[in-house]
């Protein structure tokens, strides 16, 4: 396959940045999208041009490190992570536009690499159950209905990649935040801190500069892990009931 | 040096309890005066950092990824073992201990493995309390599945994403401590060296991957939780960033490296498709619970299959060779990983491989789908099937999967004593980074167990014993050793950037990988290993004179990051070859063709090789010194491992 790549190049956070066009040849349909970029980078390095920087690590769709806004969609045309996208999803001769995630709360570091530490801070605000190591009851002490455990697992599958933010016209982080709030609100172990958790995580999300939710559903449509927008509804319920009967005294 | 494993005296089952009692304690008010550095935030690192911070120590946690949640533990699929015996099928701490020792082909320490089995039950309790959504039965209790090398169901799991859920649990505990101000996080920061003062580890040198700043950090103890070195093979199931640099620098500063040649080749990975490939993808071992492994009975049928004249589903049962079920009737498809991998290699070497390259066998779900229905199979393995389809373009519900072994895990690592301390006082290694619990072969679902055991339940006790022996006085960074280590790191960066040769970093990495896979992979010979040693030495010279790294240090420079890692992999590769050459026996993942039984099984030599090979760095270009820690077995009888 022969392709034309239009890639966002930006030297560092303060650089203005812009698109640069690169032709690539000899792309096989079995390559992953990132392997195609590896090939480009090998060629660029050999020519003495700075390779394109992008985040990636596990390359099996679970670490959440890879990103890329491909032809106007986070993680490209399929509902999967970029590392699991293969070139058989593209046609010979196609032009592919590659950009970083675009959101105020995810500033560009270099080229296609962005800073997603805002997500860590949202979790630090309350995305946990306060138990210390040791001194916990036997694992089978509290039975949890399979349906509830499965729902919690559905929400817990979030990989924190940020595609939901990139997909949203408001750059809202509601899907990410609600996935963690849902997981812990569903489980009996999460009940004690249920209200404070919702309040604190939502407050942190707002403080990071993420936008509001207007229910367009773009996040759910682009989430590589199929996190459902019903989690946002649950988070809103959790949040409002927490605010009216707050434990934060 | 005599290696003192510090294994407590007394009966096996009482060692750990007794050791916990005899270990010194740090007074609660004094804990806040001790600083601890944790490098790596996977299962071992995150659980250790969180647990130590909860105790009151000041923790600094480092990872090269953009967030601690991305560490490669996250990719573990199948599950975590624990001797809960919830299934009432005869499991016990002793049985888990026995299975693990036997699975490791009797090359692990009894006391360490017993402790691992003992604390395994606490891990499950801990994770459930954190909100890890393990799979459950309809009655609301936890579900289990069976795994290779065991005849009981003791594996706990969260769909095919157990590692993800356990890591996110540990990450949440870590995040709580970050919020509490007890852990300071340093993401996108790579450890470049250990600082040793008067023989004790007192800090590290790091490079900020965004700004290139080289910095020092002082502490009373340093914990390396930096994972394995499978990427020495270039192609492996490890993440692209997984590397040996932290462990290797520690090695060069005095930490012995143990059993480096013990590497695990996982049997169920998606076969290699071409030269462009950057990594291999694992298909969880849990698939072997329901999938049946086979190749055509004859080479002729396999030829037709490879040419596309027939399809897998057209091959009749009598023309299929379910070779694991045939050779190992009692364990069948659930034999340990080393056995499954070696047998896949054998049938492919016989010309019975099933894909274009001839290096693949089938993993077939036809019978399981017929028996249980598609729904049941989809519930158990849905995400794995989807992933397979995504990568290969084939639907495993319709046609059998194709799999082939790939490098997955490294049992070798930094030598540690019972307290997880390396040969450098104050320097610890946890999880895959150490060598201690899996012998020559790790059983499935045991890596997660070990990572969390080390971090949650071992280090909080053993670290205190060391800290109690040193005064709670701040370690100052103005000691000349810090400046010296920092200057060394800066000089190395400058050297790499100044070579300005003609070949990319990946070019060298791929060549190293080929040498290692061909000569130090699934089957090894003296001749091949000797050749590999010469090839690696030549490659090292070439790397340091012809590598091409663009850009500067003072920016995000991914080529420079890789160059550091590959330079260390090259040196490690040579040590792995030395270790494989020294071990004139076959055991677990280390298979020397000269040493096999008439049936082609690994032939151990307990008389001469029942020891841990711990290598001491002797200086640039000097042959490393071999130290032996004899393995004493007081409780299990060493036998030829049989899964027939």
TrEMBL record, chain A:
Gene3D superfamilies: 3.10.20.30, Alpha-helical ferredoxin. Residues 149-179 form the 4Fe-4S ferredoxin-type domain. Pfam families: Fer2_3 (PF13085), Fer4_8 (PF13183). One of its GO terms (biological process) is aerobic respiration. InterPro entries: 2Fe-2S_ferredoxin-like_sf, 2Fe2S_fd_BS, 4Fe4S_Fe-S-bd, Beta-grasp_dom_sf, Helical_ferredxn, SDH/FRD_Iron-Sulfur, Succ_DH/fum_Rdtase_N. GO terms for molecular function: 2 iron, 2 sulfur cluster binding; electron transfer activity. It comes from the Bacteria. Its cofactor is [3Fe-4S] cluster; [2Fe-2S] cluster. Belongs to the succinate dehydrogenase/fumarate reductase iron-sulfur protein family. This is Succinate dehydrogenase / fumarate reductase iron-sulfur subunit. It comes from Algoriphagus boseongensis. The lineage of its organism: Bacteria, Pseudomonadati, Bacteroidota, Cytophagia, Cytophagales.
TrEMBL record, chain B:
It is an enzyme of class 1 (oxidoreductase). GO terms for cellular component: plasma membrane. Residues 509-643 form the Fumarate reductase/succinate dehydrogenase flavoprotein-like C-terminal domain. Belongs to the FAD-dependent oxidoreductase 2 family. FRD/SDH subfamily. Residues 35-448 form the FAD-dependent oxidoreductase 2 FAD-binding domain. InterPro entries: FAD-dep_OxRdtase_2_FAD-bd, FAD/NAD-bd_sf, Fum_R/Succ_DH_flav-like_C_sf, Fum_Rdtase/Succ_DH_flav-like_C, SdhA/FrdA/AprA, Succ_DH/Fum_Rdt_flav_su, Succ_DH/fumarate_Rdtase_cat_sf. SUPFAM superfamilies: FAD/NAD(P)-binding domain, Succinate dehydrogenase/fumarate reductase flavoprotein C-terminal domain, Succinate dehydrogenase/fumarate reductase flavoprotein, catalytic domain. This is succinate dehydrogenase. GO terms for biological process: anaerobic respiration.
């Amino acid at each position: 396959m022969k392709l034309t790549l239009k890639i966002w190049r930006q030297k560092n956070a303060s650089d203005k940045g812009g698109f640069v066009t690169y032709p690539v040849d000899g792309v096989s349909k079995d390559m992953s999208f990132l392997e195609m970029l590896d090939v480009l980078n090998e060629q660029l390095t050999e020519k003495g041009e700075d390779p394109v920087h992008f985040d990636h690590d596990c390359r099996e769709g679970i670490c959440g490190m890879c990103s890329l806004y491909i032809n106007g969609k986070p993680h490209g045309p399929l509902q999967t992570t970029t590392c699991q996208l293969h070139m058989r999803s593209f046609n010979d001769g196609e032009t592919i536009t590659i950009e970083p995630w675009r959101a105020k709360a995810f500033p560009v570091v270099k080229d296609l690499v962005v800073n997603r530490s805002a997500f860590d801070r949202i979790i630090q605000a309350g995305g946990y159950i306060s138990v210390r190591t040791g001194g916990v009851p036997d694992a089978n002490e509290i039975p949890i209905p399979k349906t509830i455990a499965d729902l919690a697992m559905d929400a817990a599958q979030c990989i924190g990649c940020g595609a939901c933010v990139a997909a949203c016209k408001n750059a809202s982080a509601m899907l990410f935040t609600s996935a963690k709030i849902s997981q812990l609100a569903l489980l009996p172990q999460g009940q004690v801190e249920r209200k404070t958790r919702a309040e604190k995580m939502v407050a942190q999300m707002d403080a990071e500069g993420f936008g509001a939710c207007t229910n367009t559903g773009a996040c759910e449509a682009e989430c590589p892990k199929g996190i459902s927008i019903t989690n946002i509804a649950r988070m809103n319920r959790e949040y409002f009931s927490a605010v009216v009967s707050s434990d934060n005294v | 040096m005599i290696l003192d494993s510090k294994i407590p005296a007394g009966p096996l089952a009482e060692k750990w309890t007794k050791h916990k009692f005899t270990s010194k304690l740090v007074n609660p008010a004094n804990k806040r005066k001790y600083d601890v550095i944790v490098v790596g935030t996977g299962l071992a690192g995150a659980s250790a950092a969180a647990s130590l911070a909860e105790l009151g120590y000041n923790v600094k946690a480092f990872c090269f990824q953009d967030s601690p949640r991305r560490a490669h533990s996250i990719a573990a699929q199948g599950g975590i073992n624990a001797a809960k015996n919830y299934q009432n099928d005869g499991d016990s701490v002793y049985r888990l201990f026995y299975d693990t020792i036997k699975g490791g082909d009797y090359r692990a320490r009894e006391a360490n493995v017993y402790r691992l089995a003992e604390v395994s039950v606490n891990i499950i309790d801990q994770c459930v309390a954190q909100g890890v959504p393990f799979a459950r039965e309809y009655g609301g209790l936890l579900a289990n599945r069976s795994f290779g090398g065991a005849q009981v169901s003791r594996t706990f799991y969260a769909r095919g994403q157990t590692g993800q859920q356990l890591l996110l649990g540990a990450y949440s505990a870590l995040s709580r401590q970050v919020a509490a101000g007890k852990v300071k996080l340093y993401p996108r920061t790579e450890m470049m060296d250990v600082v040793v003062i008067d023989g004790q580890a007192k800090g590290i040198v790091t490079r900020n991957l965004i700004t290139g700043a080289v910095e020092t950090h002082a502490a009373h103890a340093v914990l390396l939780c930096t994972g394995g070195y499978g990427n020495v093979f270039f192609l492996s199931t490890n993440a692209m960033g997984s590397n040996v640099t932290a462990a290797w620098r520690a090695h060069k500063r005095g930490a012995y490296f143990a059993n480096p040649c013990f590497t695990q080749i996982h049997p169920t990975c998606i076969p290699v498709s071409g030269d462009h490939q950057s990594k291999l993808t694992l298909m969880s071992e849990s698939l072997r619970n329901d999938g049946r492994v086979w190749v055509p009975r004859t080479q002729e049928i396999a030829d037709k299959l490879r040419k596309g004249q027939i399809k897998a589903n057209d091959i009749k049962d009598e023309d299929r060779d379910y070779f694991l079920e045939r050779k190992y009737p009692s364990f069948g498809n659930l034999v340990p990983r080393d056995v499954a991998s070696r047998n896949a290699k054998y049938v492919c070497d016989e010309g019975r491989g099933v894909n274009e390259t001839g290096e693949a066998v089938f993993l077939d779900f036809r019978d399981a789908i017929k028996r249980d229905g598609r729904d049941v199979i989809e519930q158990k393995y849905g995400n794995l099937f989807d992933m397979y389809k995504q990568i290969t373009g084939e639907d495993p519900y319709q046609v059998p999967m194709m799999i082939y072994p790939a490098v997955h895990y490294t049992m070798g690592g930094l030598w540690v004593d019972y307290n997880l301390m390396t040969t450098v006082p104050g320097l610890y290694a946890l999880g895959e980074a150490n060598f201690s619990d899996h012998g020559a072969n790790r059983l499935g679902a045991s890596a997660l167990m070990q990572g969390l055991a080390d971090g949650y339940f071992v280090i909080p006790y053993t670290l205190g014993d060391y800290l109690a022996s040193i005064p709670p006085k701040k370690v100052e960074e103005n000691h000349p050793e810090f400046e010296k280590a920092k200057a060394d790191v800066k000089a190395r960066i400058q050297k790499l950037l100044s070579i300005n040769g003609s070949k990319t970093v990946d070019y060298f990495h791929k060549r190293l990988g080929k040498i290692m896979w061909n000569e130090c992979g699934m089957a090894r010979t003296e001749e091949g290993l000797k050749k590999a040693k010469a090839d690696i030495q030549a490659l090292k010279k070439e790397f340091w004179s012809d590598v091409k790294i663009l850009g500067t240090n003072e920016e995000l420079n991914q080529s420079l990051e890789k160059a550091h890692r590959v330079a260390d992999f090259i040196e490690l590769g040579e040590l792995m070859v030395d270790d494989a050459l020294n071990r004139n026996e076959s055991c677990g993942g280390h298979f020397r063709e000269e040493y096999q039984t008439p049936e082609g099984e690994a032939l151990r030599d307990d008389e001469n090789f029942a020891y841990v090979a711990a290598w001491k760095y002797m200086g640039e270009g000097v042959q490393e010194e071999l130290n032996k820690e004899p393995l004493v077995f007081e409780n299990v009888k060493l036998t030829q491992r049989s899964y027939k």
